[in-house]
Design brief:
The chain has two helices and 17 strands. With 294 residues, the protein is mainly beta.
Length: 294
């Protein structure tokens, strides 16, 4: 069975904005403050992923995407005395994205249809068969605090400090969300299996036989499977329709250090120090994961 798959693409303008700003301010003779931000606003208009069928399906099933990644930083440098300086930094890195803007779930209700032979039905939730196009927001912001203290005494350059980092993940995936999914095919005890075989069709290969059965099932409307899945509502902790799988995770880590750069002589400098790091476990913050945490 020879087959070729076409894909229709709707017009999809792309907009990118890259605003960037930095401010340095000398508050006093001993204190300097800096603030900076790098931002990218990206919009892929509805249609950029294309659809599996032409005409009205291209307009109704096509979707868009928005992303707003940025890096923001604030720092302060305090010259306590000629040989003592303290630096403080705070930064945020975010990669907020929202996939499949414009997705209309009502187009796929009351059922989803999975045709065999990778044929599009117009009622499957697809972005290329096998990838859902349902609405999906996600973000993974990282917050970082760091403080460093520098002290010069004689031939020694001491430094002490530490950092604290928190990583947070949020993602919502709707998926089928309670819509029944109908699949077409021939089950094992179907009498038609006695017709499509090597006796009635000599020299037929297994792949060709399976294609013939799949095409027969589609043309005669043989439903081989009906499945439905629902997700857990993160607020009620109960299975419910029209609720996304909401992933929420958090991880915390921090570290402390002390070091010295000792200029023992004009030709010899000795660097030594000690650092201790702690990395916490990744854990679920909305208590809907089914796997145990150890």
């Amino acid at each position: 069975l020879f087959r070729n798959r076409l894909r229709w693409v709707a017009p999809s303008p792309v907009t990118n904005q890259f605003p960037t700003a930095r401010i340095d301010y000398q508050v006093t003779e001993k204190l300097r403050v800096s603030v900076s931000d790098t931002y990218n606003h990206n919009v892929n208009a509805k249609g950029f992923r294309g659809t599996v069928l032409p005409g009205i399906f291209t307009q109704e099933q096509s979707v868009g995407q928005i992303s707003n990644p940025y890096i923001a930083n604030a720092s302060a440098t305090w010259t306590i005395s000629p040989n003592k300086v303290n630096e403080f930094n705070f930064g945020i890195q975010s990669n907020q994205e929202t996939f499949n803007i414009g997705y209309d779930r009502s187009l796929f209700q009351p059922r989803l249809l999975n045709f065999p032979l990778n044929l599009p039905s117009g009622l499957e939730v697809t972005n290329g068969l096998g990838f859902g196009i349902t609405f999906q927001p996600r973000n993974n912001p990282i917050y970082n605090f760091a403080d460093n203290y520098y002290y010069q005494r004689g031939n020694h350059s001491f430094s002490f400090g530490g950092n604290y980092m928190r990583s947070v993940v949020h993602q919502g995936t709707l998926g089928d969300a309670g819509t029944p999914r109908y699949s077409f095919g021939v089950v094992g005890n179907d009498p038609i299996n006695s017709i499509f075989n090597s006796t009635t069709l000599p020299n037929i290969s297994n792949d060709a036989r399976n294609d013939a059965l799949a095409l027969y099932a589609l043309l005669t409307g043989r439903v081989s499977n009906v499945a439905k899945s629902v997700n857990v509502d993160e607020k009620t902790k109960q299975f419910a329709e029209d609720q996304p799988v909401t992933i929420r995770e958090r991880q915390t880590s921090f570290g402390l250090y002390a070091q010295d750069s000792w200029r023992a002589s004009r030709s010899l400098t000795i660097n030594y120090g000690l650092r201790w790091d702690f990395q916490g476990d990744v854990f679920n913050t909305n208590d809907i994961y089914t796997s145990p945490s150890l």
